[in-house]
Amino acid sequence: MHHPLTAVALASLALLGCQPAEPVRIGFLGGLSSRASDVGEAGRNAVQLAVEQRNSAGGIRGRTIELIVRDDAQDMEVATRGTKELIENRVAAVIGPFASSMAAAALPHINQAGVVMVSPTITSMDFVGNDDYLFRINRTTRDNARDYAAKLYQRGQRRIAATFDVRNRSFTESWLNEFKAAFAEIGGETIIAVPFESMPDAGFADIVTKMLAPRPDGLLFIAAAVDLSRLCEQAKRLAPKLPIAATEWAASEKLIELGGKALEGLLIVQNFNREDRSARYLAFRDAYFKRFQRDPGYSSVLAYDAATAVFDAMEKRTEGETLKQALVKYAPFEGLQQTISFDAYGDTPRTVYFTQIRDGRYEQIE
C-alpha cells in the first residue's frame, strides 16, 4: 500500500510537469524620454510587434517571449543602470541601444555578463572589429560618411561647413572624422566644424552663423531630428539658397513633422527602402500601422530585423551553443528588406538609399 505522502508527492510532480515553460526574456534598451526619443520609440514598437507576432506563432520552441523594456534617456548613467537591471532580470539578449554613446556605457556590463546585445542602429567605428558581445544591424560611420562625401562632391559642393552634437560624441565625432578624410581624399574640404550640445535653448542661430562665416558652398548637420529641424529653420532664414544635408541619425518619421517647410531640399540617407513593394515589407508596414497608428521608420525596420535575427538564432541553436555562436553560425537571417549576416565580430553590411525631402516627404534619388 502506498504511503499517502508518496501519492501527494507524485501528484505534485505530475502537476509540475504540466507547468508552462518559463518565458524567454528579451531586454530592450533605448531612449524613450530624451530629446531624440523618436528613434527609440519607433524601435521599441517594432520589437514589441516582433514579440507579439512570434508569440502568436508559438514563441521560441514553445516558450513565450517576455519583453523587458528599459529607457536609457540618452544619459550614460541611466543607460548603465538599465543595462544592469536587464542583466539582473536574466535576459537572454538585449535589443538596443540606438545611440553610440549609450552603447559605450552599456558594453562593459554586457561583456562582463556574457549577454548578447544587438544594436539596430549604432554605426560608430569604436564598435567595429571587436571580439565582444555586441552585434550591429547597421553599417558603419565610415561607409555612410564616404557615400555622403561622394554624393556632395558629385553635386558640386567643395567647401562644407558642418556642425555636430557632442551629446552623442561617439557617433558624431566618428562620423565627422570619417567624412573629413573621405571628402579631402576626393578634393573637397570641411572648412569648419561647429560643436553644440543638444538642449532646447542651444542657440541654433549662432551655430548656423558660425557655419556661414567661412563662406561654405554647403551645410552638413550631424544632429538628431529635434535639433536638425531647428538648424534647418535658421539655415533657411540666413542662407536660403545654400544646399543642406544631414546624417542618417535624423532620418526619422518625426523629422518631417518637426521641420515642415524648412527641410525642403534636405539630402539625407535612409537605412531602408521606403519605396519597397515586396509582400514581406508591406505586411510588416501594414501590421505596424494597425498596431501603432503610425508608419514605421528606419529604426523600426532595423529593430525588427534585430529581433528576427535573435529569435531565429535562438530557435536554431543546438545544446551547448551560445547565442553569440548561433548568430554567426546560422546566418543569413531573413530581414525585412535584406538578409543579415554577421562576421565573427558581430559586424554586418547594409544597403542604404539617398533621399531628398520634397513637399514634406522623403523622395528617393539616384
From TrEMBL:
<comment type="similarity">
    <text>Belongs to the leucine-binding protein family.</text>
</comment>
<dbReference type="InterPro" id="IPR028081">
    <property type="entry name" value="Leu-bd"/>
</dbReference>
<dbReference type="InterPro" id="IPR000709">
    <property type="entry name" value="Leu_Ile_Val-bd"/>
</dbReference>
<keyword id="KW-0813">Transport</keyword>
<dbReference type="InterPro" id="IPR051010">
    <property type="entry name" value="BCAA_transport"/>
</dbReference>
<protein>
    <submittedName>
        <fullName>ABC transporter substrate-binding protein</fullName>
    </submittedName>
</protein>
<feature type="domain" description="Leucine-binding protein">
    <location>
        <begin position="23"/>
        <end position="360"/>
    </location>
</feature>
<dbReference type="InterPro" id="IPR028082">
    <property type="entry name" value="Peripla_BP_I"/>
</dbReference>
<keyword id="KW-0029">Amino-acid transport</keyword>
<keyword id="KW-0732">Signal</keyword>
<dbReference type="GO" id="GO:0006865">
    <property type="term" value="P:amino acid transport"/>
</dbReference>
<dbReference type="Pfam" id="PF13458">
    <property type="entry name" value="Peripla_BP_6"/>
</dbReference>
